[in-house]
Target: glutathione transferase
Amino acid sequence: MAGKPKLHYFNGRGRMESIRWLLASAGVEFEEKFIETPEDLDKLKNDGNLMFQQVPMVEIDGMKMVQTRAILNYVATKYNLYGKDIKERALIDMYTEGMADLNEMILVLPLCPPDQKEAKIAQIKEKVTDRYLPVFEKALRDHGQDFLVGNQLSWADIQLLEVILMAEECKPSVLTGFPLLQEFKARISCIPTIHKFLQLGSQRKPPLDEGSIETVKNIFKFERG
Ligand SMILES: N[C@@H](CCC(=O)N[C@@H](CS)C(=O)NCC(=O)O)C(=O)O
Model:
């Protein structure tokens, strides 16, 4: 029997967090090997483990997978979270790519220079409420099902919940005016594997704090901003 997937990344959200969400929602246990120093990253690189010298890297089914979207696609396909046909997959791809754009804006927020932070937060709030959430509220209304695509849980539902919770960290009232998304959030949060992942002590990561920001800057050798 194959062992648990092993995730190589720093101990924070970043690009790995959606992978953690997807595995946990699929009920897959995983191990994490945290990169804590530049030397840890160098070792992974020098040992030939990183195809493009970048993480996330996930050891799964005998592969050392890199590239976030490739890993997500693989996990979603393997655990039947990627629609039942090519059209459902196309829709899941469109939804998740939109969410990934939003996710990226929120993820990089802690790394932006303090004097630009307020403007960035205002921009995110505007994009969330004017561009992204209306799409998903309408999708749920038009589709009339409990899930975004088809009539079963998919990667799109999981990533939407992840993004909603992140957006709520920027603006707690973000779902005001989106009644179907409020119901969606409550419904998807009750799915047992997801409910478990939402509990304190799970492998879900909190937003980056000042200490973790310094660690990330040190590992990846970049300046804030
Ligand atoms: N397209 C890649 C981008 C990966 C990436 O930029 N990873 C960063 C950490 S989040 C990294 O490893 N940076 C080190 C480097 O590029 O040398 C993906 O989505 O996985």
In short: The mean pLDDT is 94. The first strand starts at residue 6 and ends at 9. The two ends are 45 Å apart (CA to CA).
